[in-house]
Amino acid sequence: MLVHLVTRHQLSEAPLVVDVALPYRVAGTLLLLYAQPLVKVAAIPMSKVLVAPDGLSLELGVTPSPVPEPFAEMLRTHIVTRPNMRTAAGESPWLFPGIRAGDHIHPDGVMVRLRKLGINILGARNAALRELVTQVPAPVVAEMLGYSDQVVHRHAELGAQPWDRYVVGME
Questions:
Q1: CA 133 to chain CA centroid, nearest Å
Q2: What domains appear along the chain, each with residue ranges and CATH number?
Q3: Per DSSP, what are the bridge partners of residue 57?
């Protein structure tokens, strides 16, 4: 899966020193790598993070999606150091525990932090999805990421015709 298409321009425009807490880096990477809406990212249960001898994978759809390095290492670190774990309820069932025991983080908080970094949330998700369907067949993307076939095929159509709307310059 490809991250650099979405992040290269955005990172080149960002300040050189950016202090972003690990949970927000993980959430942003899930948006950029897997084209996941922040509402879904914020509510990922730990039971959907699969640890196997051959690596990590995420159950975002029907078929688990592999987690590539170096993101896998970032995700492992986040899992071990998740914030808001000191509650009377004990272990949180969420990948991103919220402030209130038993709740996950609110997606609006993630959205605000990512927007402050200059990331266009919808644009990043659409670009990531369009890039994914150029690398993997649309039905596989839909199955792995939990999207409907119609949405993924629409992005495949748009991604396959980047020059159809190009207007030739005036002579």
A1: 15
A2: 4-160 (1.10.443.10)
A3: 50, 66
In this structure, are residues 2 and 50 in contact, taking their beta carbons and an 8 Å threshold? no
| Sequence-separated (6 or more) residues with CB below 8 Å from residue 32 | 3, 6, 7, 124, 128
In degrees and rounded to multiples of 5, residue 57 shows phi and psi of -145, 160
**DSSP readout, 53-120?**
TTEEEE-SSSSPEE--TTHHHHHHHHHHT-SS--STT-S-SBSSB-SSTTPBPPHHHHHHHHHHTT--
Q: What parts of the chain have a pLDDT lower than 70?
A: 1-20, 85-90, 160-171
Q: Is the pTM of this model over 0.85?
A: no
Q: Which residue has the tokens 């209130």?
A: 100
pLDDT tens track for 15-61:
444 456 889 899 999 999 999 999 999 999 999 999 988 899 999 99
